[in-house]
Design a protein that fits this description.
By secondary structure, the chain is of the alpha/beta class. The strands form three sheets. The protein has a six-stranded parallel beta sheet, with helices on both faces. Strands 6-5-4-7-8 form a five-stranded parallel beta sheet, sandwiched between helices. It folds into three domains: 150 residues, Rossmann fold (3-Layer(aba) Sandwich), CATH 3.40.50; 189 residues, Nitrogenase molybdenum iron protein domain (Rossmann fold, 3-Layer(aba) Sandwich), CATH 3.40.50.1980; 35 residues, no CATH class. Strand 4, helix 6 and strand 5 form a beta-alpha-beta unit. It is built from 16 helices and 14 strands.
């Protein structure tokens, strides 16, 4: 495996670190222009445009009356999955539901002695669209995406949750996705993919409803479409390639480190797998261990490309330097394979999710642990958070003044209003007080 371990202070190490700190990537111009055209077509031609793109790229014989998954299709899906899947699905739902229920926010009020009342009213959006990628033509259904996006929306109280996913070449959707959606209360499902699916959710068509929030992962066309409609609707985030940073000391196992680097690398040729270790001997073991495990993977070609072009092994002087470097990089998944990982948690400032100890693979967070796996990438963990219930909530301020409260605050309100040259603002206070004199 052609990854050469380097120290953080070497010229090569400093160059690699500089690249990691500047890894944010915008969509290329070709993608941007193509997506603009797709959005325009769907906005203007609605179902006809969605159907045209669907026939061209997914299901050649798709008809407009097949765009929505029927009740019969939903029912039939249960006959196509086994009991083992249903048991795993139930366990995953239980864990994810239990975690996200803690995130629900309450409305609140504050009262003052002069009769003023202020507060915040927390309400769900009316509708949310959940985009679920096709997963290699439906052969690898991304069930976890259904759960991680749909469950928080349900807890928030979103009245209308719709799922949209590309059909396979026969115009069908994986029964695993259909069962997962039904198990969390989603039965309104549409067959469309890529940028035209995002456009349909943002603008609405004769068949597919317009929504208030769009969430879910996808390729560069999905990401760019979400970026372009952001502002018209809320989106979860602009996600880049999946990424992991492992901080390891000399007691960590090379096999576990390599396995977790490969778990990220198999996602995408652009996936990012980084090891920062304080042990030069351990660092030297990793390339051979990666090669040994790589040949056993079903997606070894993808993983090899990712590691060859983007794999990084850095040797730090001590754990303090390693942790500070992790903060600077602000990674999506941060693993602490060190003797006492909990002792370093107070020093972590920027990470999408933190995985503690030798027995906590990132894969546990992807599927079953409970926290959401939709996480900020490309350094955006410096200011962004995981998808959660709050993604589907909006807050309205509440303000109620008594006459006494207005009299008490009038001078201050008028002072600031006049300072800003907004005399009508000042007058709106004065006219109320003048009525009472």
């Amino acid at each position: 495996m052609p990854i050469t371990p380097v120290t953080t202070t070497s010229p090569e190490g400093r160059l690699q670190i500089a690249g990691l700190l500047q890894r944010f990537q915008a969509a290329d111009d070709t993608c941007r222009v193509s997506v603009e055209e797709i959005l325009r077509r769907v906005k203007e031609d609605k179902d006809a445009a969605v159907l045209e793109y669907c026939r061209r790229f997914d299901a050649p014989k798709m008809t407009v009356d097949q765009l929505q998954v029927t009740a019969a299709e939903l029912l039939a899906a249960y006959d196509k999955v086994d009991q083992a899947f249903l048991a795993t699905l139930s366990k995953a739902i239980e864990r994810i539901q239990g975690f996200h229920e803690r995130e629900m926010e309450d409305s609140w009020l504050q009262t003052r002695e002069d009769g003023a009342i202020v507060g915040r009213l927390v309400r769900p959006v009316d509708s949310a669209g959940l985009y679920v990628p096709g997963g290699q033509g439906g052969s690898t259904p991304l069930v976890s995406s259904v759960l991680m996006n749909g469950i928080p929306a349900g807890i928030a109280g979103v009245a209308r949750r719709v799922m949209i996913t590309p059909p396979d070449s026969r115009g069908e959707v994986s029964p695993h996705l259909l069962v997962a959606a039904q198990k969390i209360g989603i039965t309104e499902i549409y067959k469309a993919g890529s940028a035209w699916a995002i456009a349909a959710l943002a603008y609405g068509t004769e068949t597919i409803p317009r929504v208030d929030v769009i969430v879910g992962p996808g390729n560069q066309f999905v990401a760019e479409a979400k970026r372009q409609v952001s502002g018209l609707v809320r989106i979860d985030m602009i996600a880049g390639p999946s990424e992991v940073l492992i901080v390891a000391d000399g007691r960590a196992r090379a096999a576990s480190i390599a396995a977790d680097m490969l778990a990220q690398a198999e996602h995408d040729p652009q996936a990012l797998a980084i090891l920062v270790t304080t042990d030069a001997e351990l660092a030297g073991q990793i390339p051979d261990e990666l090669e040994r495990q790589l040949i056993l993977l079903s997606r070894q070609d993808i993983a090899r490309k990712a590691l060859t072009h983007r794999g990084v092994i850095l040797i730090a002087s001590d754990l303090d330097e390693a942790i500070e470097l992790a903060n600077d990089i602000a990674i999506e998944h941060l693993e602490l394979m060190i003797a006492d990982p909990w002792s370093k948690v107070p020093f972590i400032r920027h990470a999408g999710a933190i995985f503690l100890g030798d027995h906590t693979p990132e894969a546990a967070g992807d599927y079953l642990a409970g926290p959401n796996h939709v996480l900020p990438t490309m350094g955006t963990a410096r200011f962004a958070s995981a998808l959660g219930v709050e993604t589907f909530l909006k807050k309205s301020s509440i303000i109620s003044y008594s006459e006494t409260a207005l009299r008490n605050d009038a001078g201050h309100i008028q002072m600031l209003a006049r300072l800003e040259g907004l005399t009508a603002h000042a007058a709106s206070v004065e006219v109320r007080l003048a009525r009472k004199e």
